[in-house]
Structure formats: C-alpha cells, structure tokens
Design a protein that fits this description.
heterotrimer, A alpha/beta (398), B alpha/beta (355), C mainly alpha (89), A: 398 residues, 3-stranded mixed beta sheet, 35% helix, globular, C: 89 residues, 0% strand
Chain lengths: 398, 355, 89
C-alpha cells in the first residue's frame, strides 16, 4: 500500500525574508524583494534589478553559525533554510538510514569560482576552488551541517530542479524506501547566470510583469527552501503536526528546444496532467495555481496555453510569485512550494504583481489582488526549466 | 529487488575501444599519461553533423552512447531518461566563464551558456528522440551515476514494463585538468606508470559515457540482472564499510563466497584507495579481484564503466585475465560485486548477477 | 570599404565559425538562401542571438531585439546589406 506523503516542516530564505514567517509577512504586506543589485559585483548593477538577499557571505555565515571560509553562498543559503525546516518538523534523529536529503542547484559553486578563475588563468596556481565548484558540494555541506548521514543526492534540471527534488523525495516515501526526506534547493545570484540570461535577452530591466502583454523578461533572484516530507506511518508514530499532503506530482519533457518551450506548451501540459492524474482529483478541484510565470515572452504564453488546455474556460485563480522574489532558478520549485503551502494553510491567494493587460493571444487574467479567507483545498505549483524539463506539484489541505 | 531489474542493452564510450561491440580487453590502450581522453573517431558518425554542431564533446559522448544502447536493446520507446554527471558540461561552463572575464561581461555567446547547464545531455537525448517522458539529471559527485541507477530501479518497481535509459557521463577538458592538477588531485605525470603500486597521491583522470537500458522484463538480449545497489556517504572506517557490505550481501541473500568476482574502484590515489585496498587484502582476499580505473581513468561516473564491464563479462561468460589483480581462480561469472569509491567520500556497492 | 561580394564572403565564413556549421564551406551557402527555418540553413532562435553578438563584435552594430534578426536578416545578402547601411566607419 503506497504511503501518503505529508509535509511536516519547511524553511526558506529569499529576498523577501530570512525564514517562513518573514516571507509570509512580506507576501501579506505586498513588499516585493526585487531591487537594484548591491552585493553582486557586476557591470550590470545599474541595468538590471534582482531579488537579491541583502547579506554578505560573512553575514550569512553568522546566521548559519558556520565558518564561511570554504562555504559557498549556495551552501550558506541552503544551510539556513534546511535548518529552519528541520527545526520546524522537530526531527529528533536524522542520521538513521530511513532519512534522506535531496538538494538541488544550478549555480552550485560557480559563485565562488567566478571570483577566483580570473586569477587562476593568469597564475595557474591556487585552483583548489575546484573543490567547491560542483553541485554536490553545497549538498554535502548542508548534510554535514544537519547531521544527515544517508541517502544524500543532488538534482540539477535547471529551473525545475527543486520541484524535482520534492518529487523524488515523495516517490521514495511513497514506495516505503524512506520514512523522511528533506527536499528542496538553493541558488544564488552570480555573474555567470546574470550574463548568461542577458546573452539570451530574456532579462527585464524593470520589474518583471508575469502574464502581461507587455512583459519583457525575468528578474533573477536568489534563495533556498526545503520541505520536510514524512510518511503517514512516521507522522502517526511521532504524533507530528502536518502542514499539508503532497497530493500529486508530474514531470515531463517538452522535447522541442533547448531553451524555448513548444508553442503548444506540450511539456507543461503533460506535467500538469500527470500531477492531476497522480493526485486522483479533478482539475476543477484545484483552487489556486502558483504559476512558473517568469515574465518572459515565451514562458508565459506557452504556460498560459497549457493552462487553457488543462482547465478550459475554468482556470482557477493563478499568479506568479516571481514578481515578489525574482526567478530563483533551481530553488524556485521549493521556494514556490513554501509559498503554495503558506497560501493553502492561510487561505490566501497571492497576487500577481505588476500586471496591467492580459496577453492578447490568451486573454487570461491572473489574480491582481490578495484574496484573504479563500477556501483552498488544493494548490498546484509549476516549475519549467531549460532543456524542456517541466514539473508540477499539487499540495492538498489536511 | 522487486520486481527483478535487467540490463537489456548497453554501450560505453571511453579511452578504450569500448564503442566497438566486439572489443573485449583484447588490445588495451595505455598512453602512460596522467589523463585518459576519449578519441571521437570511433563514434563521430553516430550523430548527424547538423545535429551535433552545438554539442560539446560531453554531449556527443552522452548522446552517442545513449542512442547506441537503445539500438543494442532494440527498443524505440522510453519511459524515462535518467542521467548522472558529476561535473556537468564543464568545458562550456569554463568557456563561458573565461569569455565573461576576458570580455568584461560583454558580447557573450548564448549557445555556450545554454550548453553549460547540467541537464543538457538528458535534454538533448529527449530532443533527438522527441521523448516527452520523465527526465532527471543527478549531479552528486561520485554518487551521480548510482543515484540515476537507483531512480531507474524505483521506476521499474512502479511498473516492470518500463524501459528506462540510464547513464553516466563526464568529461575532462584541458581547462578542467589544469584545475585539478593545481588542486593536487591529478597524479604527477612522472608517477603515471604503474600507478597502482607506487603509493603516490593523485589519480589518472578519465572521461567517457556508459548508458544502459533497464527493464523489469527479461529479454533475449538481457546482459545481466541488476540485483542491488547501495551508497555509503563518508564512512568513518573500514569497519563501517564492512558492516555495510555484510548487510548488503545478506539483503541480497548471498554469502561472500558466492561473489565470484569483485571489481574494486581503486583510483591510484594512495589516500582515497586506503579503505578499499585494506578490504581487498582482508575481507575480499578469497574473491577474485579486478580493477578498472587503470583502463578508464577516474571520474565521478567511472563506476558506470565497471557496471558496463560486469554486464559484458556476464554475457560473454568470461573474465579477461588482464584485469585480474590477485591469484584467485577465474570462473564463469555468476555474481559480480562492484565496490567503488570516489575521493574517499562516495562509496557504493552494485551487485550484478547472471540471469 | 569592402565590396558587397567580399562582405558576403566574409559573413559566410564568420557564420560558419560562430555557429559551428562544421561541415559547411562558404561556397555551400547561397547568398540569397533563407538563413532561418526549413528550406535554407535551418538556423534557430539561439543562432539568431549568436548572429547579434557576431554583428556587434565584428561590425560594431548593436541590435537590441532578436525578433528583428529573423525578419530583416533573411539571408546572407540582406544581412550584408544591413551591415553596409549601418556600419560605423
């Protein structure tokens, strides 16, 4: 009998707060975190805005109670968020072999490598930063920090990474292989990604406008978020407080182009369809969608097309919270999972900021205003990444 | 494992002539260098030129071995594509970074940035096959391939009729070699000969790609049965490893004496090889022991070469003498245990059996 | 100042190099053949962005909208014409 998967804890750090409570406050008070770039050293400081966390690595290290010497910003954000999630879930023993840790990232240690590689190219000495460059580094730093000893892995599928971490964790619990998984992701602002997205011409110089006819691109962001997932048996055994259930999930590939999504929104459609099928609910039962909604010409159009295919004329209330935090890349799935769960448990429909005119080809309108006391039972969250990687999660009220 | 999992197709691209289906440790390349790079001559026609133009060597290796594994298993439809890579598309990452530094963040190539994302290989395979199925990339150091394999096994546990493409791929471009040399990871060139026996530090770096088709259905082309996989993170000592191996064997309902062959992940780096060497000399002393990294080099996904080797040996019912490290008698292989380590932190056990 | 023909030949070589059209030679590219979509070179949106970089790097012309590239830069010929008209001397 497959185990149900429950969320018993969550942790987050983003440009709108250092923990769940601060993030929630910023959402309720509608104070987005997208601003001028101040900490990242780049020639584009005055050109692009970002959801930057206004702490230096040293300050983050103090918050994480770690020594910052060999810890990348990626690891530090992850440590802070994962620690909050673990504390929230009141886990007593996390080193047993039925507990796992699944993290995800795209920037990984590049935030450090990019500061040191220039000197290395000149001198050819001091290449030891290679030790922190790869994706597994931040995961092992976080696992070591938390004392998780077993079942450690890292996923990297671009912007769907941490949604996939949550999917993978859920599957491990459903199958009975593990009882508990801490799953999520971490990504930081880096020159590498800022320049990469700029070369693709998909950054907005102003605040992003998800689902707006005049949208010009995305704002990058940084952050980390983790959910503690536990099996039904585990939750009953320990008398845990449950935040919600992971009701369904889906992952599909668009198989159309490296970066652009197919005009039919195939991957997005298939991911949502699979999530709905695995949840056992009808599309009509979904009350709110936290969309991927990056603000790019391509994503918002194709995601909208996919939404129409799934929901027809009855698209539930939807919004993109990237208008609050920017696009946190690998962390987006988990960051927005936290927001989805906050929405679900507080009866809140989060507004889609900076919206004026609907996309003319679609004529769909996101939620423009905060809705309090909403009767939410199921929330769908989308995360779509480069390489056609599309993932959807459904959270159910318990 | 329930249901049983079978390897129904495989192809390996490495410094050796593994892409040639008839090669079986006949002529072994030994360039005597501290790195073993793949020559693309053997498989350059596997991908059409107009499709491969944007692909880095890493992506070409991954795509070519993946497509060939599918042909080997004679299947066309996949239920999942799962890739493991420790370093991702490193050459394109460093190329973009170098350009960013030298051009002061101006006039950068979008194609290079796109190709640097870690899931490029899995994405390209899906694109070429027009495959909309589940698509994951694991990027955890020396567990990357094992994690991909574990995921594939869990997919089959849900539905044994699935055909899963799973593989490992990593590259060693010159820019990467420079870095690991400077970090002290690479064997000094002077120590590259006979490096298993000279107790020096550093590894012989290798690259390549091994892909497999896994299914819960046995076929005429099945190579072997994948019985069990386990990963061990940062074991404190050989005692902990030994206990894990014992539990692994008992969970697989096997005695140590039933393991006719153990493939050891000795890398040539004295320090990281310590625990495996000790267990080889003690716990496994009565089992036939083979090495593999001296033929393929070390990389986060090197273990995928060992799995390829084990699968082919079981199918061919033969262990090549050149691979043997001790004097235990060679038998027709029935149960092969791969015992690997990467940088003394990521240890794994994979059991493959005759089917 | 280059002749139109010379500019076209240079552009062909630059496109082959920048876009990694490894199996092609300049003489394989007809100046009036479409660059994008089927029936021509089959370039895509990423190539469009690469061409923008190429034009700025080699000819000092900044194009701010990649959608324009597909419309105006139909072929090597129209690309060369655009460069002749807009190149900074």
């Amino acid at each position: 009998m497959p185990q149900k998967v429950f969320v018993t804890g969550m942790g987050i750090i983003s440009s709108i707060g250092n923990n769940c409570s601060q993030n929630f406050k910023s959402i309720v008070e509608i104070t987005p975190g997208i601003s001028d770039i101040e900490i990242l050293e780049t020639v584009y400081r005055k050109k692009f805005k970002a959801g930057e966390i206004k702490y230096s690595n040293k300050q983050l290290a103090e918050m994480a109670s770690g020594n910052s010497d060999n810890l990348t910003r990626t690891a530090l954000l992850g440590m802070i968020a994962a620690a909050e999630a673990m504390a929230h879930a009141q886990i007593k023993n996390f080193s047993d072999d039925k507990t796992g840790f699944i993290s995800s990232t795209t920037v990984a240690g590049m935030c450090r490598t990019e500061l040191l590689y220039g000197d290395f190219l000149q001198s050819k000495i001091n290449g030891s930063f290679i030790e922190t460059n790869d994706c597994g580094d931040s995961t092992e730093c976080i696992a070591d920090f938390l004392g998780i000893k077993n079942n450690i892995t890292t996923i990297s599928t671009a912007c769907s990474s941490s949604a996939n971490a949550i999917i993978h964790g859920s599957r491990l619990i459903k199958s009975g292989k593990l009882n508990r998984v801490v799953a999520g992701g971490t990504d930081v602002l880096s020159k590498f990604t800022l320049n990469g997205f700029h070369s693709l011409q998909i950054l907005d110089e102003d605040w992003c406008k998800p689902f707006d006819e005049n949208r010009k691109g995305l704002n990058l962001g940084e952050g980390a978020a983790y959910l503690v997932l536990e099996s039904e048996d585990q939750v009953l055994k320990e008398g845990k407080k449950i935040l919600c259930e992971i009701k369904g999930y889906g992952n599909a590939n668009d198989a159309y182009h490296q970066t652009a999504s197919s005009p039919e929104g195939t991957g997005a459609f298939l991911a949502m369809q699979e999530a709905i099928q695995t949840s056992g609910i009808n599309p009509g039962e979904i009350n709110y969608i936290n969309a991927h909604g990056t603000g790019t010409m391509n994503n918002d159009l194709t995601e909208g097309i996919a939404l129409k295919k799934i929901f027809g004329k009855n698209i539930p209330a939807f919004s993109s919270t990237k208008s609050f935090t920017g696009h946190t890349l690998a962390a987006a799935g988990a960051v927005e999972a936290v927001f989805s769960i906050l929405a679900l448990t507080n009866g809140l429909v989060i507004p889609n900021l900076n919206f004026s005119d609907p996309i003319s080809a679609l004529d769909i309108i996101p939620e423009k205003k905060m809705v309090h006391h909403a009767d939410l039972k199921y929330v769908l969250s989308n995360s779509f990444g480069f390489g056609g990687n599309c993932s959807s999660l459904i959270f159910g009220k318990v | 494992m329930n249901p049983a999992v079978y390897i129904n197709g495989t192809r390996c691209i490495s410094v050796q002539d593994t892409f040639d289906r008839n090669w079986f440790f006949g002529e072994i390349r030994n360039p005597g260098k501290n790195f073993l790079q793949v020559s693309e001559d053997a498989f350059k026609n596997a991908i059409a030129a107009n499709l491969s133009r944007r692909m880095s060597k890493m992506v070409r290796m991954g795509v070519a071995s993946a497509m060939s594994a599918m042909n080997d298993a004679a299947i066309e439809k996949l239920s999942a594509i799962i890739v493991g890579t420790g370093n991702g598309c490193f050459e394109d990452s460093l190329k973009f970074l170098k350009s960013m530094i030298e051009n002061e963040e101006k006039l950068l190539s979008p194609a290079t940035f796109i190709q640097s994302t870690h899931n490029t290989v899995a994405a390209q395979i899906a694109l070429l096959l027009k495959c909309y199925a589940y698509n994951f990339t694991y990027v955890h150091r020396g567990f990357s391939f094992e994690n991909a394999l574990q995921d594939a096994v869990s997919q089959i546990a849900e539905d044994k009729n699935k055909n899963i493409l799973v593989g490992g791929v990593d590259e060693i471009p010159a820019a990467y070699l420079e870095l690991i040399d400077s970090a002290g990871w690479l064997k000094k060139q002077a120590d590259a000969e006979n490096y298993f026996s000279n107790d020096t530090g550093g590894v012989i770096a290798g690259e390549g790609s091994s892909f497999f088709i896994l299914s819960g259905i046995k076929s005429l082309s099945s190579y072997a049965q994948l019985k069990e996989i386990r990963t061990i993170y940062n074991p404190s000592d050989t005692g902990e490893l030994r206990l894990t191996i014992e539990k692994f064997l008992s969970d697989s309902q096997l005695q140590l004496s039933s393991i006719d062959t153990v493939i050891l992940g000795l890398s040539g780096d004295a320090q990281s090889d310590n625990k495996i060497k000790f267990l080889g000399e003690n716990y496994f002393k009565n089992n036939l022991q083979l090495s593999f990294k001296n033929y393929f080099g070390e990389s986060p996904i090197a273990v995928s070469f060992a799995l390829w080797m084990a699968a082919v040996m079981i199918r061919k019912k033969e262990i090549p003498e050149a691979l043997c490290m001790n004097n235990v008698r060679r038998k027709e292989p029935e149960n092969i245990l791969v015992f690997n380590q990467y940088r003394d932190k990521n240890y794994s056990l994979i059991l493959l059996s005759k089917c | 100042m280059e002749t139109q023909h010379q500019l076209e030949e240079n552009l062909k070589a630059q496109l082959i190099q920048q876009l990694n059209l490894a199996e092609m030679k300049p003489e394989d590219i007809k100046p009036e053949a479409p660059l994008f979509g089927d029936g021509g070179l089959g370039l895509d949106s990423i190539d469009a962005l690469e061409i923008i970089v190429l034009i700025e790097k080699n000819y000092g012309i900044k194009i701010l909208n990649s959608e324009k590239v597909k419309e105006i830069f139909y072929s090597v010929r129209t690309l060369a014409e655009y460069i002749s008209q807009n190149q900074k001397t």
